Amino acid sequence: MKTPDIRSEETPALRRSFGLSRRQLMAASTGLAAASMVGPLSSSAAAKGNGVLVPRGKLGIILYSVRDAVGRDPLASSLPSGFKEVFAELARIGYKQIEFAGYTQHANAEGGRTPAPALLKQWLDDNGLEAEGNHGSIPSTITDATLATFDAACEAANVLGMGHIGTGSDPTSSAYLADWQLAADRWNILGERAMNKHGLKLYTHNHAEAYSHLNDVGPLDAQGRPTRQSGVRRLEWFMNNTDSRYVFLEMDIYWAHVAQYRFGSYVAEDGTTVADPFDPLGTVNTFGPLRYPLFHAKDGTSQPGTRDGYAFAPFGAGVIDYRAFLGGVGAKGYHNPMWEQDSAPSAAVPGQSLELAAFSFNNLKNLRG
């Protein structure tokens, strides 16, 4: 597949898909974005930084960003289709690390619907790629059967050469302390098993709601549940009540910024609203940067007045200050930032997700600070 030159008029649909003018797209692709971009690449300081913020060997992508290409029928398209061809294209772009979002592809792709882990590993090796993790499922209960399923997932991860195994969901979507306690107990068991039996770091991925506050005090509702908050954030409680040796996190930096926008206060037991600003970078450094082996490097444009305050954007075309974030986090160079854009696939532009993968790679690669 030929990668379009985004400085030309070859890709008007690509420009329209994330609302940039031709000039803005040119600027973002070269790391010299105009002031209106207000992004991490928008200042001369970014171009004159003191070092690359993402080591070359840690330039990664989660395959959810190109899920349409992985699931595409190779018999119906000349575009890269299925794991083998997508790996080759991502390696050609320059990516070095892969985070899986499951192990299924189109049934007509080489290897069938669910290629064996050993075959996936061979394709990764053939392209100089390294698997880092997977957004799989974590048992919701602890039984002999669920532990056996978990062990099988860990064994597949070991065949693929991963250092981490995880999930794309929050530990629980509940607002109540009792459910977070159950989740913490379960994750402690699974995290210790993953590390001691399989040599893997077990990680959870956050959405915005995970950084909202627990309902843990105040008047009870009709089901006997508390309706107000003492100021403890859900995921921060989880961090404090899981074993740092065995339970790790993949901060989705976009969703953490949405949480910063949405959850800057709570309703106290007496019914008053209490300001409580949320700082994504400060949270990582407070709980220890080594507890965050992976990040999702997801960018967004500013959308004030909407529920989330942001909208998905290609990396480098948004306003999230990755130069400040990655430059300010401790253990610089330790983390594995996986590019993700939930909206990269497009039914109208079949090649869009891989085009955006190339666009975002270039900005991630050139990020300095």
UniProtKB/TrEMBL annotation:
<dbReference type="GO" id="GO:0016853">
    <property type="term" value="F:isomerase activity"/>
</dbReference>
<dbReference type="InterPro" id="IPR013022">
    <property type="entry name" value="Xyl_isomerase-like_TIM-brl"/>
</dbReference>
<feature type="domain" description="Xylose isomerase-like TIM barrel">
    <location>
        <begin position="87"/>
        <end position="338"/>
    </location>
</feature>
<dbReference type="Pfam" id="PF01261">
    <property type="entry name" value="AP_endonuc_2"/>
</dbReference>
<keyword id="KW-0413">Isomerase</keyword>
<dbReference type="InterPro" id="IPR050312">
    <property type="entry name" value="IolE/XylAMocC-like"/>
</dbReference>
<dbReference type="InterPro" id="IPR036237">
    <property type="entry name" value="Xyl_isomerase-like_sf"/>
</dbReference>
<protein>
    <submittedName>
        <fullName>Sugar phosphate isomerase/epimerase</fullName>
    </submittedName>
</protein>
<dbReference type="InterPro" id="IPR006311">
    <property type="entry name" value="TAT_signal"/>
</dbReference>
